[in-house]
Specification:
- By secondary structure, the protein is an alpha+beta fold.
- It contains 1 helix and 11 strands; from the N terminus they run αβββββββββββ.
- Strands 1, 2, 3, 7, 8 and 10 form a 6-stranded antiparallel β-sheet that branches. The protein has a 3-stranded antiparallel β-sheet with strand order 9-4-11, with no helix packed on it. The chain has a two-stranded antiparallel sheet with strand order 5-6.
- The longest helix is centred in the first third of the chain and has 24 residues.
Length: 164
């Protein structure tokens, strides 16, 4: 019976020694690297001027301002890249049924008093290398060719904000 007690005490000492070793190891440390890729994000909102509405115009009427000028573009504060704003038409022509006239009769500029630029189907920068949050404006004018058939003519205007 005495031998059994000694063995039990011996086990207790060994367990105690292991506990000390584990405790001493808990102060060791190592390092790791955390990484993340944050995607580009641009928030764009069009207000007022959308849709761009010229109301009723007569054939030959030249350079009438849209009634709801300008088209306002707001870039949200959550945008996390520098960006450019560009514009283009989605077609080479205004259309009303089978009747058309050139999209180049629609003009834009970032200033209501400046010389306007004709729309094309290619992106043209309106504002370059901007930082958010900002508000921007695009003013529009339209000239109706003579003679132009009566109708309700439409063309799409595309505004793009893209990272630089």
């Amino acid at each position: 019976m005495v031998k059994r007690e000694v063995l039990v005490l011996g086990c207790m000492l060994i367990i105690s020694a292991l506990a000390v070793s584990v405790f001493a190891a808990s102060s060791d440390f190592d390092t790791a690297t955390a990484s993340v890729i944050i995607n580009q994000f641009i928030s764009v909102t069009l207000t007022s001027g959308s849709p761009i509405d010229f109301g009723n115009m007569d054939p030959g009427q030249s350079l009438k301002n849209a009634t709801n000028n300008p088209l306002n573009i707001t870039i949200g504060s959550e945008t996390n890249v520098d960006f450019t704003i560009s514009t283009k038409a989605n077609s080479t022509t205004f259309k009303s049924g089978s009747n058309t006239f050139a999209v180049g009769n629609l003009n834009w500029n970032d200033d209501s008093f400046a010389t306007k630029t004709n729309y094309t189907t290619s992106d043209v920068a309106v504002y370059s290398t901007q930082t958010s949050p900002r508000e921007y404006s695009i003013y529009h004018e339209l000239a109706i060719p003579t003679p132009q058939k009566a109708g309700d003519y439409n063309v799409g205007v595309i505004i793009t904000a893209a990272a630089v």
